[in-house]
Amino acid sequence: MAKTRRAIQNQTNRTLDRGDLGALLGFAATHSEQSVCRKARAYAGGLPIDIAQAKLDLNGPNAVSETVEDPTVIRFLKCFASPFTLILLALAAISYITNVALAPSGEQDPTTVIIIAIMVLISGIIDFVQSSRGASAAAALLQMVTATTRVRRRPINFDDFEVSHTETPHDGSATDSASHAATDSVPHTDAATDNTSHAPTGTADTPNADSSFDKEIPFADVVVGDLVLLASGDMVPADCRVLDAKDLFVNETALTGESEPVEKFPTVVHARRRADGTRYPLSLSECTNLLFAGTTVQSGSATAVVVATGDDTYVGRMSALLRQPATKTSFDVGLASVSKVLVAFMLVMCPIVFIVNGVMKGAWLDALLFSVSVAVGITPQMLPVIVTTCLSRGATQMAKQDVIVKTPSAIQNLGAIDILCTDKTGTITADEVILERHLNVLGEEDEYVLRYAFLNSYFQTGLRNLIDSAIINATGQLTDVNNLINSYTKVDEVPFDFERRRMSVVVEDITNNTHMITKGAVEEILAVCTSVNFKTHISSLTNAQRQDILRRVHDLNHEGMRVVAVAQKDNPRPVGEFGVDDEADMTLIGYLAFLDPPKASAAEAIKKLGEKGVCVKVLTGDNEGVAAAVCKKVGITVDALLLGEEVENLSEDALRKRVEQTQLFAKLSPMQKARVVEALRKNSHVVGFMGDGINDAAAMRASDVGISVDTAVDVAKESADIILLQKDLLVLERGVEEGRRTYGNTIKYIKATASSNFGNVLSVMVASILLPFLPMSALQLLLLGLAYTLTCIAIPWDTVDGSFLAHPRSWDARSITGFMLWIGPVSSLFDVLTFALMFFVISPAIAGSTWTELAAAGNATGQALFIAAFQTGWFVESMWTQTFVLHALRTEKLPFIQSRPSAALMILTVAGIAAVSVLPYLPKVSEALGLVSLPMSFFEWLLALMLGYLVLISIVKALYVRRKGSLL
After folding, report:
1. What average pLDDT score do residues 279-300 get?
2. Is the entire prediction scored with pTM above 0.70?
3. Residues 6+ positions from 733 with CB-CB distance below 8 Å
4. CA–CA separation, 120 and 382 (whole Å)
């Protein structure tokens, strides 16, 4: 057995191209059956059991590798890797060194370190919990289904297995099969027949074909070289080359997006060539002799040889592509740019504060401690918490609407999209067939045609497809089908086959007359008709009528409909002798038009998305006629169309220009879809992609936010950031609104906090120059930041103005800088007024004398009281101004009047102001914090300052909106 494995290993290395999927399947499609079988080392009677086991041991199971997730510990640590968190940790380390490690015995103060640690832990834990919930919800959806398939195997054991391989490459020309036929014996069997052919040449020993047996095995045990026997309803277990096929139609909707089944043949595919002689890459639709893993046999039967398993299959290669690191989304890029701006601001301002205070005061250690506190204060340390909480709330709201959010940042990305790309089948269409029209030969609605079609569909015993079901359902809505059924008795039928593309039933009515009713492809029905029936008037079928009928059918096809013709013949021949020969000299009754209709919610959803500034583009693997018709029905104007072949040949720059004017992209391969999405993103669009098939996975991965449904294939669900539990496009519209609300609440925190903190830094700079002492202690500054931060926790639950939700919103770091420069100085102006109030009015009243008098008298106790009063006043005033500016800047309208905050935000902000205002009056707390009680006159002055502050900030806000167009 070991020798067998070594031989198999050597042969696999020589014969199977395991590097490039295109080359592997391209070879299988464009070479003869004999060549493919030799390359896969297949046998006419199936693989010997021991060789199959050796291949399985060497190459592993036929399963696509799953994404390896980071261990829980690693994921937890990554939640603390944001720029702000790292800065806070660095500041905590500096504070520990200065306040604890280097502090004299008995004077160690770890308060700053503890406060920072609490902030970091809150942020990281919330982020970890939310991301874990999303991953768990997604994992629950991705349940694998165990399936089996029938293969042909041999019970023969080869102890000595030697292989010779002399494969001669060729170009897949028409002479290929003939050139090999003389030397090769191919496994050429049908699923229903016994084995009569011989093994391919190239083996030292040829097993006896008569000893073969068919075996049902799990998909995972299928190996390259297996002969797979497929019948109607079977799922294809791996990528295979067809050897024999009988009326084989395969459903490849999940792979290509084509709504119609594809017929497969064993013949060689000839690749198209360019003008320079090189081949065009084969598209999936061109591979009519290949079967792909995960597709389903709709009808017919086949014998196929496995050419690729597991990660080497088309699906496996797609999965491998999706396991690569994802491109950075709009959210990632935007948040990173905002973080850089805020970090740069902190790194510039803090050294300035340190140097100015050190030079002016001479106490360099105090200046260092104060600058560290300023760094903590001006850093929006709760940004990770606010962002995560906003995203968490958005995910919770979406979950109430049957939407699973796998990636929390997808919520904000969804709100930022200005282009939604979507597949057609199953996303904007219902993925079903309905009877749209039943027409007579003149193109008029005629129930007579429908009744005859009903009799054909109802009485046939073959495989009833979606068209038959649509006919039966439509007839039941128009007439009493029971009366119709009771009026006829089935006599015989001529089953459908894909050569003549029609089927017939013979029925007898209550007058004992027999009628042959035939339906099928229009061209095939016209070929057997010599007359037409129009309202019981029968006349000869002329060439002009034929052309007129074909023109009407073409028009219906152009509208995206599939057309089936209906014909009949009275008293064809005696009972029991009906056959294909009777399908002649028939009378054409009319034709039926079928459609995969748009979803009921599609048009409304697309309209609402358009009103919110989101352009919808359709990217489909289906043909352009059907896709254009669907677009028209859902309100998408198709002014420009781009086909996959054109996409393939366009340069990067040319494609970027074309995608802007194009609404419909048809006949696209999976990678062409991804290329279109990438071109749109390079044009500075934020792009969402919605799909449910394997052919959509690459495009979803390339987009800013991938959207799928729970009935999608596993690869699509794995690629998606958002999974809809209901195929309702209106959920997307609500999701876009929720994403914008999430962004709005996040950006209002960033802008309000950044501008307020910038104002505080300016105030500190002024105080450092003008005042003989620090305006606030380091501990007070940290505590103020913590108090303000805790009030901001309610921001994710705040209301957002409807005008803000009306347009796409994305991160803009430059707007934050401009906002700080506009709003920050207003806050600083009132801080300076507060300094003047405290220095010249309140502090002298509390200390009993002015600062100059206290300094001249050398009254250290009075000076300490003066400083404590001053710092207490600014401590309280800062909390008031920061809170008021948050409410003023959360809306472009008048706060509290035209735009009311949420109850949670109102309660927390009032509680925050009250708590900070009360602290100076709590004896032990105030003593520990260096605060003193303030007279009631201070609050009278404070209310006047706040009124003036709100008036001025409203004026500046209005000017800013007029200049910039938007506040947030």
Report:
1. 78
2. no
3. 605, 608, 609, 612
4. 8
Q: In 3D, which of 261, 258, 217, 263 has the Cα closest to residue 238?
A: 217
* DSSP summary character for residue 294: T
Q: Which amino acid is at 63?
A: A
348 CB burial (10 A radius; 0-12, 13-18, 19+): exposed
pLDDT of 655-690, one tens digit each? 999 999 899 998 887 778 888 999 999 998 989 998
φ, ψ of residue 420 to 5 degrees: the values are -115, 115
Specify the DSSP element, H or E, that contains 148: strand 148-154
> Is 419 in a helix, a strand, or coil?
strand
- CB-based contacts of 795: which residues, under 8 Å, 6+ apart? 386, 390, 745, 746, 748, 749, 905
Least confident range of 46-50, 179-183, 765-769: 179-183
Kindly state the average pLDDT of the residues 288-306. Answer: 87
Q: Which amino acid appears at position 645 of this protein?
A: E
Distance from C-alpha of 841 to C-alpha of 673, rounded to nearest angstrom: 70
Angle between helices 813-837 and 729-770 (to 10 degrees): 40
Cβ atoms 755, 880 nearer than 8 A: no
Structure tokens at 943: 């209310």
Angstrom distances, CA of residue 750 to CA of 391, 666, 964: 15, 43, 17
| CB-side neighbour CA atoms (13 Å) of 774 | 25
Q: How far apart are CA 113 and CA 778, in angstroms?
A: 12
User: What DSSP assignment string belongs to 489-527?
Assistant: EEEEEEEEETTTTEEEEEEEETTS-EEEEEEEEHHHHHH
Q: List beta partners, residue 404.
A: 723
Burial class of 218 by CB neighbour count within 10 A (0 to 12, 13 to 18, 19+) = middle
Q: Give 225-277 pLDDT, tens digit per residue.
A: 999 999 887 889 899 999 998 878 888 776 765 656 788 888 888 766 656 66
Q: Which amino acid does the sequence have at 151?
A: V
Give the whole-angstrom CA distance, residue 283 versus residue 271: 10
**C-alpha to C-alpha distance for 255 and 621, rounded to whole angstroms:** 9
Query: Which residues make Cβ contacts (< 8 Å) with residue 913, sequence separation at least 6?
Result: 879, 880, 883
Active site residues: 423
Task: Give ∠ CA 936-937-938 in degrees, rounded to 5.
Answer: 85
